[in-house]
Specification:
mainly alpha
Length: 146
């Protein structure tokens, strides 16, 4: 078997063919991890182009989205604050407050039928026992009894 020529000895171009072993070593020469950059271009230039395109995309987002995002962040911060305070509360009072809030939300869902889709089967079973907005409107359409 004859002597092999490395990429470095043949000019170092990747187009020269498959990599071969060095004469004096038993490993392949290192291969660059990133693709070759065009002449005169640098990695920072590519990142700057990506940053500019991302900035342009962010500028095209409607203001309503940013307002909703800000409100969401404020609600999240308020929820964290409330949870920290609730952890220090008496557990009986905390249970009473949670029960009252969940009851109000539940009755609102039953009355106006605006519950989440995954709770619709449960609300369908409970709703006939409570008044609803549609039954109230139907009663209002009837003439009053003398």
């Amino acid at each position: 078997m004859g002597a092999t020529v490395t990429r470095a000895e043949s000019g170092g171009k990747a187009e020269d063919g498959p990599a071969t072993l060095c004469k004096n070593c038993q490993r392949l020469p290192p291969v660059p991890l990133s693709p070759r950059l065009p002449r005169g271009a640098r990695q920072n230039d590519r990142m700057l182009i990506l940053a500019v395109s991302a900035l342009e995309k962010v500028q095209n987002v409607p203001a309503k989205v940013w307002i909703n995002l800000g409100i969401g962040v404020l609600i999240f911060i308020a929820a964290l604050f409330i949870l920290k305070r609730a952890a220090q509360m008496n557990k009986i009072w905390l249970g009473i407050i949670v029960f009252v809030v969940m009851s109000i939300v539940g009755f609102q869902w039953i009355y106006s039928r605006n519950e989440p889709k995954f709770l619709t089967p449960l609300v369908d079973k409970i709703a006939p026992f409570f008044p609803s907005a549609s039954s109230y409107e139907a009663k209002q359409q009837q003439a009053p009894k003398p």
